[in-house]
């Protein structure tokens, strides 16, 4: 008898929770997208095709030089930003490829950077600045890799610094890109229904 009563109480509570959720209704999609689109305007300076020299600091201490390209554009009615980064060796062979999205969460009022590169994926906070952005990757106990970018006109400079508590920052990455022009990617040339 005691177990039956407990099941009845659980069922009534579940029904009450479900009724409350249904009464609240679905969020207004148009309002959410409009708020996301408005927030993404803070990163519109990134849009376009970019190319230039870059280097990464290898464990040996040698700077590995490549040519870095980026193509960046809006998707989903401007509510997210899509990024493809590709690095090329001096002989033209691709040696690095990354794909990422940046989105804005209306509820938390925070930007998210979701990245795929070198067989790994991660979800990070990205913060727009007056002329660029900053994002960070946890890199072990008391260590962070901080990427900072400044975009002015046709110049896009991003640096990566390894920051360890009690030590000076160590620059491990730098790219200096020039804007090549606009790109319809990724939203352009969508597959038509016929």
Notes on the protein architecture:
With 194 residues, this protein is of the alpha+beta class. The chain has helices at 2-24, 29-40; strands at 48-57, 63-75, 80-88, 94-105, 110-117, 120-129, 132-138, 143-152, 155-164, 170-181. It has 2 helices and 10 strands, in the order H-H-E-E-E-E-E-E-E-E-E-E.
Supply database-style keywords.
2 helices; alpha+beta; 10 strands; 194 residues; ten-stranded antiparallel barrel; globular
What is the arithmetic mean of pLDDT? 90
Distance between the termini: 63 Å
Radius of gyration: 22 Å
Corresponding CATH superfamily: Calycin beta-barrel core domain
DSSP strand content: over 45%
Tally of alpha and pi helices? 2
Output the helix-strand order.
HHEEEEEEEEEE
- Detail the poorly predicted runs: 11-15
The beta-strand count equals 10
CATH architecture: Beta Barrel
What layout of secondary structure does this protein have?
Blueprint (H helix, E strand, L loop, with lengths): L1 H23 L4 H12 L7 E10 L5 E13 L4 E9 L5 E12 L4 E8 L2 E10 L2 E7 L4 E10 L2 E10 L5 E12 L13
Antiparallel strand pairs: 1-2, 1-10, 2-3, 3-4, 4-5, 5-6, 6-7, 7-8, 8-9, 9-10
